[in-house]
Amino acid sequence: MIRRPLRRVLNRATLISMAWRLNLDADLVLDLNEPLIYGKRITAENAVLLPDGTVAYPKDEDLLEGVTLHSLRHTYVSLLLAQGTDIKTISYLVGHKKLSVTMDVYSHLLPGQSLTAGDAIDAAMEQLEDQET
User: Domain locations in the chain?
Assistant: First the structure.
């Protein structure tokens, strides 16, 4: 299952964040706490072994709460859209069979679309006004 590898990545990231915060060698902290990496998700209650033999507990700033496969996928698509990748390519990359699915889910992220739509309405209204005069 893909969730287990994601949990391991998040656990490693938590340990690295702790090590950096405490000005410790991240590789050493990872080596000392390998069982935590492969266990359940690290929380503020997990004791983390430090190189000097003491323990510390993760702080909220170390934890990656709310990171899920769904949030990573949404971030991926958001970044692609922000870089101007066309929606058809994105639809293919994320495995949607229909372009309409991608549009339904991500159209609110299309950069400048509301401005473009507003400009189109303004232009149409100006044309109507010009025709009336």
Answer: 3-62, 69-132
